[in-house]
Write a structure and sequence with these properties.
This protein folds into two domains: about 210 residues, no CATH class; about 140 residues, Glucose Permease (Domain IIA) (Distorted Sandwich), CATH 2.70.70. Helix 1 packs antiparallel against helix 2, helix 2 packs antiparallel against helix 4 and helix 3 packs across helix 4. The longest helix has about 80 residues. Helices cover about 60% and strands about 15% of the residues. By secondary structure, the protein is of the alpha+beta class. It is elongated, with a radius of gyration of 36 Å.
Length: about 400
Amino acid sequence: MKNLKLITILIFLLAVTAGASAQSAKEYEQKKARLEREIAIIDRQLAENSSRSTSLMADLFLIRKNVANRKELVAESDRQIKRLNDQINLTQREINRKQARIDTLSAHYSKLVVSAYKNRDARVWYMYMFASDNLGQAFRRFGYFRNLSSQLNQDAQRIREEKARLEEEKVKLDAMKAEAQAVRKERAAELDRLAKEERKADNVVKQLRKDRKKYQNQLAAKKKEVNALNRAIERLISEAVSGGKKSSTGKISKTHVPVDMKLDAEFSKNKGKLPWPVDGPVVGRFGKHYHPVYKNLELPPNNGVDVAVAKGSKVQAVFEGVVKQVIAMPGYNQCVLLQHGNYFTFYCKLGNVSVKAGDKVRTGQALGVIDTINGQTQLHFEVWQGTKPQNPELWLRK
C-alpha cells in the first residue's frame, strides 16, 4: 500500500513538473532572447559612437546597462540549470521505478514460462484435472490451464510496453542532460563576456576621473538642454490645459477647447498596460540621479525615460490622442506632444516626423523615426498628468 502511494505521488510530481518545466523553459528562452536583443542594441551603439571622447558618461551608462543585463542572463542560466537538475533527478527516479517494475514482471513471467513448460503435455493436464477431489476443484484447475496461455501473452505485452516507456524516459533524460550541459556552457561564456564588460566600465571610469572640470562643463551644458526642454514642455502643457497661448505681453489668449473626458478616463484606466513606444532597453530612468563617478554631482532631473533602439526604429503612439505640437529642441532634435484628455505623452529625439499639429492618432500609429544624436540612437519619452510629470515605467507594460 505504501509503495502504491509513493508511486502515485511520484507520477503526480512528474506530471506537474513536466507542465511547469515546459512553461519555465519557454519563459527562460523569452527572457534570454529579450536580454540578448538589448545587449546587441547597446553593443551597436557603443561601436557606432563617433564622438567617444565627448560622451564617455553616456557610454558608461550603456556599458553598465550591459553589465546588468549580462548578470541577469547568468542568473537566469543558474535558475534554468537548477530546474533541469530537478527534472533530471525526477526522471531518473521514474526510470528506476520502471526498471524495478520490469524486473518484477520478468520474474513473474519466468515462473509462468517454467510452469507452462512443465505442463506442456495435454495428457498430464487431463490427468491433473481428473485427479481433482471434487467438481469445483476440477473447474478451477481447468480455468488455471485455460488462463495460463492468456496470462503469458498479457505479461509479455506488458513487459514490452514497460520497456518502450523506459526507453522514452531514457531518451528524455539524455536530452535534459544535453540541455543542461549547453546551458552551463552558455553560462561560462556569459561570465567571460561579463568580466570584459566590467573591465571596459572600469576603463571608462578611469578616463572620466582624469578631467573632472571637463565633464563638469559638459554636465552644465546638458543641464541647460534639459532645463530648456522641461520649460518648453511645461509651457506647451499649460497652454493645452488652459486652452490658449501666451501673447507677446505674457497674457494667455484663451480659446476654449473642451477636454475629452472619455479619452482621459480611458487613458487613466490603462495605467500599467500601455504599449512601449519603441523596443529596446531603458538606459535612463525617471527622477533625480547622481553622476556615476563623481557621486556628489547631481545630474539633470529626468522627467521621462531614455530607451536605446536600433538605427531606423520607428516610434509609435502609446495611446490614441491628438497631436498638440511638434517642436525642435537643442540636444533633442524633433519632439512630438500628444494629448489624451488631461494626460500628455511626449516623444523626443526624432529625425523624421510623420504627423503634424491637429492630427488625430491611434494607438500604435507611427509618429516618426528615431534620430542618432552624438552616436546615441535613443528615444526620450515622457508622460504627464496635467502639469505633473509621471514615471513612464509605471504606465507602460511590464
